[in-house]
Amino acid sequence: MSAEPSSLPLPTPTSSSSPAPRFGVWFVGARGSVATTAIAGCAAVAAGLHPPTGMVTETPDFAACGLPSLSSLVFGGHDTVDCPLPKRAEHLAAGGVLPHGLPSAVHTELAAADAEIRPGGPLPRDPDGGPARTDDDWIDVFTADIRDFVGRQNLAGAVVVNVASTEPAPADGSLPPSSLYAAAALRAGCPYVNFTPSTGLHHPRLAPLADSSGLPYAGRDGKTGQTLLRSVLGPMFLQRALTVRAWSGTNLLGGGDGAALADPAAAAAKNAGKERVLADTLGAAPEGEVHIDDVPALGDWKTAWDHIAFDGFLGSRMILQTIWQGCDSALAAPLVLDLARLTLRAREKGLSGPLADLGFYFKDPVGDGPSSLAEQYTRLRHFAARLRTASDASGAHR
């Protein structure tokens, strides 16, 4: 008599599938407010502790694009400061940027990322007192750090994202720090995202490297608050045939950005993108300019005020004023995670060169594209469609 089916020994489950791939996000400015918020936020959303508010890549239009999952992201980076990420996260929680208790809830993830942060530069002289390193020396050091990260972590790919403080535009043709990091990213075989107004890949000396790298890149200067509104309101005035006579603005902010932008040269680099959006959407730059004031007491919070003078029917003069109050790092972090996932996927799909379709995220986007937020969003959705394939719908990376 044969044994009952229930008494037969069950076979040991086997799996022919390989482990899910992991992807690196290498931050330039890895211990700053934006990077810390992005790392803590990624861990919190991946663990189901918080919803993915502000992340466009978590909306239905991007569900079948084969994007790396948040849980597959591994973080590291460069920084010139030595405050550990868990401690930095505690400071942000004390300032109301991160939810109370979140730093302790994601301490393991913060500590793991902090262990992958390497010293940044350039410094005036080497720590041993020897001669200052050349640009090529620094690029070699940064490239080796990135490659070591990818190799040790056995990553399927990595993206370098610049979220460091704004630097003045170079005046003498030299490569500023942001360009050294950008060159290292491409030399290491990684796509590059410049979320700052700093020079990065825009330096003319890096154009041949960018063209020959075969890698995708995106930037520059993340569009988080005041300019986000401008990219919506500018087209509104144009489409309603209302003549804008003047558009002035003021930014009050503290933290690292406030201190960096107290430098007039850095502020000029920042304002260039804000003003370009108006010129592009209105057809010409109106009168007025943006003033940036460092208010240390505000910490990571900022207030942006715009005063718009425009003419209506029969020359009637009118005014629109807007006030935007928010936390810069909390506004930026979900965009940074979006961009990391999108560029990593673009690299997987074999895309290269400037990703103009990601202009939705930037004040001064690379490549040719519209300046209106609505048109930029349409381009972004079309980009999402390009990332989809039949096999991606199975959710291989999710």
TrEMBL record:
Species name: Streptomyces pilosus
Biased composition (Basic and acidic residues): 125-134
InterPro entries named among the record's database cross-references: Myo-inos-1-P_Synthase, Myo-inos-1-P_Synthase_GAPDH, NAD(P)-bd_dom_sf
Family: Belongs to the myo-inositol 1-phosphate synthase family.
A biological-process GO annotation: phospholipid biosynthetic process
SUPFAM superfamilies recorded: Glyceraldehyde-3-phosphate dehydrogenase-like, C-terminal domain, NAD(P)-binding Rossmann-fold domains
Myo-inositol-1-phosphate synthase GAPDH-like domain sequence ranges: 225-329
Region of interest (Disordered), ranges: 115-134
One Gene Ontology MF term: inositol-3-phosphate synthase activity
Listed name of the protein: Myo-inositol-1-phosphate synthase GAPDH-like domain-containing protein
